[in-house]
Design goal:
The chain is an alpha/beta fold. It has three domains: about 220 residues, 2-enoyl-CoA Hydratase, Chain A, domain 1, CATH 3.90.226.10; about 70 residues, no CATH class; about 60 residues, no CATH class. Strands 1, 2, 3, 4, 5, 6, 7 and 8 form an eight-stranded mixed sheet that branches. A two-stranded antiparallel sheet has the order 9-10. α4 links the parallel β5 and β6. α5 packs antiparallel against α6 and α6 packs across α10. The longest helix is centred in the N-terminal third of the chain and has 19 residues. The radius of gyration is 21 Å and the shape is globular. It starts with 20 loop residues before the first strand and ends in a 9-residue tail after the last helix.
Length: about 400
């Protein structure tokens, strides 16, 4: 063995070995010392049916076998650009509400499975950790993030709220910050703003400031090639005395008092012409989840209660037709994105958050020329062979 090589785990070195398990979009590797690593292999590591099934089956294998724990990670440039938004868009456009409800619930239960399992689950990230990737991160026992990790819940850019447990988790983390005698509203507003503005931590250190990472739980490594090895060490550390956490039923939500504060803040943005009508609708749905719905006062609720509220709000926003008109227009103008009427959960890749945000904004009948084309967006346009669609009438 080359001295120092133990500090690096490069998954390509395991290709000549039979995987422990494999799905259409994941590979489960044995990286030694009783630790497994789950690698995403989907396009741009988007999270669809294959990845969700891979996560669930990998945790089950680790629990039922003689394994100490699981690392979720890969050596790609980006950990994950998020959930398969094309899948969501097309289900919503075709009004397949039962299938969409099933898909969102599956995503929620998968992220919860990362938290509530009998073995430690640690995530190792680098590059983009957007949307569903960020939600998965927040539900693991620990995260080992490369310093250059761009972490954030960006779903508002496409007219949605985080629906895989991310909004629920921000309500949980707000509750954990409350203390006796606390005013509480500033903490709630801070969490609300982070999601409502689609804030992305441009480094792992900055992600601590936005609440995506927790100081008592998560760590940062400077060399991205070390993150999986460090995550393995974290699994071994946690495995020594690991006890599965108990499901939370003590989450404090503020009900109507919190809704009033957040609705007022959203209304001021609209009156100042900083937000459109639909932006405010998204903000109201987000506030609804963070506050636990139309409760008469502050109450303690369970995680499952908040997940149900989150899923209901997410599905209602999916029903906003104009948010998907631009997707349909885009699909008609490119040969690379042919729509199959027999859509299933493992639909092909999504568009990364930057381009989706631009396309979604076209549904507001604004001209594409009004937008500055960023370097990541230009790369995506080339990669997907996409021309800017004509704004719908």
């Amino acid at each position: 063995m080359i001295p120092g090589s133990a500090a690096f785990i490069i998954l390509d070195n395991y290709r000549n070995r039979a995987p422990v398990h494999k799905t259409s979009e994941t590979i489960l590797h044995d990286i030694g010392d009783g630790v497994l690593t789950l690698e995403f292999t989907s396009m741009h590591n988007t999270i669809g049916e294959g990845v969700l099934r891979g996560i669930n089956e990998s945790i089950q294998i680790a629990e039922e076998g003689d394994w100490k724990g699981l690392v979720i990670g890969n050596n790609a440039a980006n950990f994950s650009v998020g959930a398969n938004l094309m899948m969501i868009a097309m289900m919503a456009y075709q009004q397949e509400w039962d299938q969409l409800n099933f898909a969102v619930n599956m995503f929620q239960q998968t992220t919860m499975r990362c938290r509530y399992s009998t073995i430690p689950v640690v995530i190792a990230t680098q590059g983009y950790v957007f949307g569903g990737g960020c939600e998965t991160l927040m539900h693991c026992d620990a995260a080992v993030c490369a310093a250059e990790s761009y972490i954030g819940l960006v779903e508002v850019g496409v007219g949605l709220i985080p629906g895989g447990g991310g909004t629920k988790e921000f309500a949980v983390r707000a509750s954990d910050l409350f203390f006796e005698g606390d005013v509480q509203m500033p903490t709630l507003i801070d969490k609300f703003k982070t999601i409502a503005l689609g804030t992305v931590g441009t480094s792992a250190q900055e992600a601590f400031n936005y609440g995506y990472l927790l100081k008592h739980r998560d760590t940062v490594v400077m060399n991205k090639d070390r993150n999986i090895a460090e995550a393995k060490h974290k699994v071994l550390e946690l495995a020594e005395n690991y006890v599965m956490p108990s499901q939370r039923t003590d989450i404090t939500v503020l009900g109507r008092a919190g809704l009033a504060a957040l609705y007022i803040a959203a209304n001021e943005l609209k009156r100042g012409n900083y937000a459109s009508e639909h932006d405010i609708k998204i903000a109201h749905k987000l506030a609804w989840v963070l506050c636990g719905g139309d409760l008469t006062g502050a109450q303690q609720v369970s995680e499952q209660y908040l997940l149900d509220v989150e899923r209901e709000a997410f599905l209602s926003l999916c029903g906003e037709q104009k948010r998907w008109n631009a997707f349909n227009t885009c699909c008609k103008t490119t040969n690379r994105l042919e729509i199959n009427n027999t859509l299933t959960l493992n639909l092909y890749h999504t568009m990364e958050a930057y381009i989706v945000k631009h396309i979604a904004r076209l549904s507001e009948n604004q001209n594409a020329a009004d937008f500055a084309i960023t370097a990541p967006t230009t790369w995506l346009l080339t990669s997907f062979n996409i021309s800017w669609p004509t704004p719908p009438n």
